[in-house]
Amino acid sequence: MLRPNDTLDPRYLYFFANWQKFINYLLPLQHGNSPPAVLDSDIKAQPIPIAPSNEQRRIVARIDELFAEIAEGEAALERARWGLDTWRRALLPLRPAPTSSSASAPNARHPPRRPVEAAA
Questions:
Q1: Residue 111 covered by a domain
Q2: Contact between 39 and 29 (Cβ < 8 Å)
Q3: How far is C-alpha 95 from the chain's CA centre?
Q4: pLDDT class of 96 with cuts at 50, 70, 90
Q5: What are φ and ψ of residue 3, in 5° steps?
Q6: What confidence tens digit (pLDDT) does each residue in 9-67 have?
Q7: Fewest C-beta in 10 Å: which of 11, 12, 60, 81?
Q8: Model pLDDT, residue 61
Q9: Is pLDDT of 120 > 80?
Q10: What is this structure's pTM?
Q11: Which residues contact 17 (CB under 8 A, 6 or more apart)?
Q12: Is pLDDT at 87 greater than 70 in this prediction?
């Protein structure tokens, strides 16, 4: 179990521990199968780059900014999907309905097949 100390910002440690590269280092060290686990000693043996405190805060702030941008993008995408659905519902009734004469007319592309005559 990783715990922050005076030199390690808790959110910096959180983001580092969730970094895919850190996780990939630990995957081969798993033991057991229900659920697989990693020993505390294996986790503590992994190197953690400790930046100066002000740099850790800057990194965490930048990650927060990026997550905020992702959330804004997801919200914009949801609004666009909702708008698209609204347009679809508004435009679908505008499609011309088939007329009774065109519905009963034979299809010009696929004329009816003629029965095959038996060979004599």
A1: no
A2: yes
A3: 34
A4: low
A5: -130, 135
A6: 999 999 988 899 888 888 888 888 778 888 888 888 888 888 999 999 999 999 999 99
A7: 81
A8: 96
A9: no
A10: 0.57
A11: 2
A12: yes
Provide the residue range defining the domain that includes 81. Answer: 10-88
Alpha helices in 1-120 (DSSP H): 10-17, 20-26, 40-44, 53-91, 100-104
Tell me, yes or no, whether 58 lies in a domain. yes
Is 84 a domain residue? Answer: yes
DSSP 8-state code for residue 29:
G
Q: Which two three-digit tokens encode residue 7? A: 């030199």
Contact 90, 42 (CB under 8 A): no
**Residue 28 placed within a domain:** yes
Other Cβ atoms within 10 Å of 14 Cβ, number: 14
| Selection from 49, 41, 52 nearest residue 19 by Cα | 49
- Between 75 and 110, the higher pLDDT residue: 75
CA separation for the pair 19, 16 (Å, rounded) = 5
In whole angstroms, give the CA distance from residue 26 to residue 28. 6
**Tokens (6 digits) for 49:** 């780059």
Alpha-carbon span 118 to 116, nearest angstrom: 6
Q: What is the pLDDT of residue 26?
A: 87
